[in-house]
Amino acid sequence: MLVKHSVISNIGRLSSLSPSSSVLRRQQFLVRTLCGSRFNPLKLIRAMSSTSEADAESILRTITPSLDPKRHKGQAGKIAVIGGCREYTGAPYFAAISALKIGADLSHVFCTKDAAPVIKSYSPELIVHPVLEESYSISEFSEEDKRKVQDKVIGEVDKWMERFDCLVIGPGLGRDPFLLECVSKIMLLAKKSIVPFVVDGDGLFLVTNSVDLVKSYPLAVLTPNVNEYKRLVQKVLNCEVDEQKAEDQLRSLAKQIGGVTILRKGKSDLISNGETVKSVSIYGSPRRCGGQGDILSGSVAVFLSWAQQLKSGPESPSENPAILGCIAASGLLRKAAALAFAKHKRSTLTSDIIECLGESLEDISPAS
Ligand SMILES: NC(=O)C1=CN([C@@H]2O[C@H](COP(=O)(O)OP(=O)(O)OC[C@H]3O[C@@H](n4cnc5c(N)ncnc54)[C@H](OP(=O)(O)O)[C@@H]3O)[C@@H](O)[C@H]2O)[C@@H](O)CC1
Ligand SMILES: Nc1ncnc2c1ncn2[C@@H]1O[C@H](COP(=O)(O)OP(=O)(O)OP(=O)(O)O)[C@@H](O)[C@H]1O
Ligand SMILES: [Mg+2]
């Protein structure tokens, strides 16, 4: 309750600064997420009710916006991925390009200077900011100069923050301590601007070691894989993963982190915000090539933004947009993986699944 008060008073403080329309939209959304809403469209209730298996296709149809010629560039979503370092350039690319392939208008990547030209070379569609620094590039710097570098990094991201509908923090980020310290400050900035964020990959390593970074922020979504989930459970619940009580344990974990939304990836994806638990078990693919989690994190960002837009409109769904975003993303990824596998069998790669995202969404929610 205390936290809700502090978030709401933070909203009040931000309102007095004449915020932009996107910030206002997020404020309305946050208030509704915390306080509930009045309007419940029947179809969404049906899709969410009774059994714990969610009707992902129905949710996808409900939250995917129509292609209205009156809408301008940006209205279908502006996503930013914070990730990409010397070792990993594929992961941030997969997350960012998936967001575009689903239908977002703009996709940014904030990565290290070394990773930027590589990621740019994968695709001219992405807006790539070479702003993050790792320890090795500043090893000779004094403490004061290191602080200046950190301030510069934060400033570069802050310039853009209010424009983003959602961040994806962590794909291919690496675990460099200096870089992770900057990223924790970026999370604080996002919370101040009430921008939702999805935490994945090495972002989860950071959050597991500093749970307060996301605790009680209702716009945080965590997307752990098997290992990442195990580490979170051990740290937060102080016990081991118990498959016999998978749903209860996930609910407890989300509750313990103050009602953040957690998408636990696996044979079935399990989703909870500490209250409800939903599963998505649509048949996907038997291929377990790396990068599928990155598609998922980019997709959650887009669908969460769309569910959030719906939330601030007249047909506001009763369900939390973060939960809807997770269900939609999981369902679409699984459909796309099944389609890609039908075409490519053993040689199915993450890029093949990305190529099937559009066709899979079209099957469920035709563009016209
Ligand atoms: N192309 C790129 O740039 C990509 C970059 N990526 C980026 O890499 C970073 C680290 O992320 P991560 O996922 O590799 O680290 P983590 O979760 O610690 O797994 C490491 C090891 O755990 C094991 N393991 C995995 N699943 C298991 C299971 N079900 N059950 C049991 N064991 C299991 C398995 O170990 P092994 O079998 O080799 O012993 C696996 O190799 C992060 O930034 C991420 O975004 C990726 O997104 C991929 C594409
Ligand atoms: N055993 C499984 N059977 C079927 N689908 C699975 C299985 N494990 C994961 N998936 C699907 O693959 C998606 C990605 O999950 P995965 O566990 O591979 O993430 P990840 O390890 O973070 O991937 P990445 O390699 O991108 O880091 C999940 O959303 C889920 O739908
Ligand atoms: Mg991953």
Automatic annotation (TrEMBL):
Entry's EC annotation: 4.2.1.93
Family annotation (CDD domains): YXKO-related
Source species of the chain: Cardamine amara subsp. amara
Protein name, UniProt field: ATP-dependent (S)-NAD(P)H-hydrate dehydratase
Enzyme class, first EC level, given as a word: lyase
Required cofactor names: Mg(2+)
InterPro entries for the chain: CARKD, Ribokinase-like
Source domain of life: Eukaryota
Residues where ATP binds: 265-269, 284-293
Domain (YjeF C-terminal): residue spans on this chain: 56-364
Taxon lineage: Eukaryota, Viridiplantae, Streptophyta, Embryophyta, Tracheophyta
Any one GO molecular function term: ATP binding
